[in-house]
Amino acid sequence: MGYMTHVIKGISWVGLFRFGTRGISFFRIAIIARILSPLQFGLFGIASLMLSMIEVITEIGINVILLQIKEKIDEYINTAWIISIIRGILIFFIIFISSFIMVKFFNAADAIYLIMLISLVPLIRGFINPAIIKFQKDLLFEKEFYYRTAIFFVESIVTITLVMLLQSPSALIWGLIAGAFFEVIISFYFIRPIPKIIFNYVIARHIISRGKWMNMTSIFSYFFQNGDKIAVGRIIGISALGIYEMAYKIAMLPITEISNVIVRVTFPVYLRIADDKARMRKAYFQSLLLVAVVSVPIGLIFIIFPQDIVKIILGQKWLVAAPVFQVLAIVGVIQAIMGDSGAIFLANKKQEYTTINTGISFLIMAIMIVPLTHAYGLIGAGLAVIVGAVATLPVTIYFLVKLLK
User: Fold this and answer.
1) How far apart are CA 74 and CA 104, in angstroms?
2) Which one, of 181, 128, 127, 131, lies nearest residue 151 by Cα?
3) pLDDT tens by residue, 300-331
4) How far is the C-alpha of 32 from the C-alpha of 46, rounded, in Å?
5) What are the phi and psi torsion angles at 103 (to 5°)?
6) Which of 350, 173, 346, 369 is nearest to 270 (CA)?
7) DSSP secondary structure string, 166-228?
8) Domain residue ranges of the chain, discontinuous segments joined by +
9) How far apart are CA 101 and CA 57, in angstroms?
10) 85 and 153 in contact (C-beta within 8 Å)?
11) Could you read off the pLDDT of 245-292 as tens digits, one per residue?
12) What are the distances in angstroms from CA 249 to CA 131, 315, 320, 332, 383?
């Protein structure tokens, strides 16, 4: 029976969480979209871009490294926690100091407060107990379900309540802050071991040296996933960024979540069977088939009925997002199908394969994004992402054949 029981159980629990929370997310988006304007979403989008950019630039992949360690990870927790705290403080200061440059780049002075406010999120997240990775490492998906669900509900309740009261994009950030603060508390209350202020230089050097490929992958991935948004905000304007951001959310959520559920479950399983190429090859094609069977029909529905879906979820005033939503649905299907290949590469400690793939996608998209956005607006930005995603397919297939032959 092997690990199939764990996979099925894991997909059930992770799927229940992902689909349940994403269903509520659609409900949350539907409420917020009827209160906030595209311009307000654009201002929040600038703050989000700033946060995610600095996070990926400083990313060292602590969670992935802890998952790859075969022995017990308890002795790594203290040092990993200190590194995480230092990184959180560093991100806080970089965002705060760079906020003036960001608003000048987008010509959006109203975003300055939002960027400064969102800098608190990584500062708080830095104190989360790194031992939460044991949920995934030890295949404890049921416990992770309850843990993640509690955090999600706190964040959602705070966000919706404050949006209705404040009618301001700052409410979205206060929701993130509330969720981060709550996660810090429960990560210490429910998870063991509790980290201590003990720093091991050897362990720290091991984590940082192993994380260099993850850092490069994160940077390329960030600019591939957000370069289109940066171009839209810079070339077309903040309101256009709000429209694009909302279309991106509703196009990607249901499709890529399917892939995320399966990858989150299969990755720790891949780690355990990494030495058995036949089992890994079989497991990969099974998960690939599952992703395709579920994601392709959803993508087709989005492509065929874009106006109906946008009108139902976001309301009449957002119908202008329907054409780009249609294009981004294609991106969602491609990314969902390719998502599991990254888990295979990381399970075999081939971080460089993932780095090369994301680097190619980013490079091609970067070449195409400005001319296509100037020529076709929001749709052109979406087309540039499609070209970048498709360009890496031959390289991905080559790496998979090399690894699984």
Assistant:
1) 45
2) 181
3) 998 999 999 888 888 888 888 899 999 988 88
4) 17
5) -70, -30
6) 346
7) H-STHHHHHHHHHHHHHHHHHHHHHSSSPP-S---HHHHHHHHHHTHHHHHHHHHHHHHHHHH
8) 35-210, 213-405
9) 17
10) no
11) 888 888 876 666 666 666 666 666 777 777 777 888 888 888 788 778
12) 30, 15, 15, 10, 16
CB of 200 closer than 8 Å to CB of 78: yes
Q: What is the mean pLDDT of residues 85-113?
A: 88
- The identity of residue 313, as a single letter, is I
The pair phi, psi for residue 315, each rounded to 5°, is: 105, 170
Q: Characterise 129 by phi-psi region: left (phi > 0), alpha (psi -120 to 50), beta (else).
A: beta
Q: SS3 helix, strand, coil % of the chain, rounded to 5?
A: 85, 0, 15
Longest pairwise C-alpha distance within the chain: 59
Tokens of 300: 């087709």
- Read out DSSP for 241-270? HHHHHHHHHHHHHHHHHHHHHHHHHHHHHH
Residue 192 burial by Cβ neighbours in a 10 Å radius (0-12, 13-18, 19+): exposed
Q: Which residue, 335, 253, 316, 258, is CA-closest to 290?
A: 258
Going from the C-alpha of 56 to that of each of 42, 49, 144, 222, 394, the distances in angstroms are: 21, 11, 24, 7, 26
The answer to whether the Cα torsion of 79, 84, 85, 89 is positive or negative is positive
Measured CA to CA, the distance from residue 152 to residue 176 in angstroms comes to: 10
Distance CA 190, CA 92 (A): 27
Reduced to 3 states, what is the DSSP secondary structure of residue 148? helix
The CA–CA distances, whole Å, from 125 to 92, 180, 183 equal 11, 6, 8
Q: pTM for the complete prediction?
A: 0.70
Report whether 380 contacts 372 (CB < 8 A): yes
